[in-house]
Amino acid sequence: MIEINSVNNPTIKSLRKLEQKKYRKKTQTYLIEGFHLVEEALKNHENYLYILGTSAALVKLTAHYKLKDDKVIQITDAIAEHLSSTKNSQDIFMVLPINQPKSFSFEYGKWVVLDNLTDPGNVGTIIRTADAAGFDGVVLSEESVDLYNPKVQRSMQGSQFHIQIVQNPILAAIGSFKENGIPVYVSILDKTAKSLNNCISVPQLALVIGNEAHGASKDVIETADKKIYIPIKGKAESLNAAVAAGIMIYHFS
Prior knowledge:
By secondary structure, the protein is an alpha/beta fold. The protein has helices spanning about 10-15, 20-25, 35-45, 55-60, 75-85, 120-130, 150-155, 170-180, 220-225, 240-250, and strands spanning about 1-5, 30-35, 50-55, 70-75, 90-95, 110-115, 135-140, 165, 185, 195, 205-210, 225-230.
């Protein structure tokens, strides 16, 4: 076990920078924190680089999991507070490699496709919902919020370790879906589209959710096999993106 006692340690300084997308991209690593996320990673046998925790946090974790001693770093309370991106740190962290494939063929299954979603909470919630509904995976467009953003990680609650998640050019992904016979449905705010109430569940599909403010992009709408909408019964103009996604995901699950 390694011990680090100073916030000025080079390793701690490097890990602190992982809050920044550019540094995550440069190092191809990201940081998660909290017992739930760390435990989900361990349960799913993720190939972690390091686990960092205070003495008390490590004792709690090792009571249930066997850790690789050369990959465990004991830190002080001050360092834990320094690394934390939350107000109430649980004093346990894990460093993981980013393993995004350079290319991907989307074969049989049910997928959610996020077209330029920018709110970390929405993205994390949709991924968690897709996981709960038994979908095979989620595709984020390159313009969407970074999958490894700390807020996205917290919102997913470990679902990133259960289903496939790919950040990929969206039109290329849609092309792959169509080549493999997977129909592409896009949600739009237009009553000329087909009401969700009149859509039956299908064995496979790619369900596109558009940007929170502007909806799905024009090119995506034009390439979709079916345009759908959720009927609004009250006076609200629209639904939150994550809520709308949840309704449609469970409809097609």
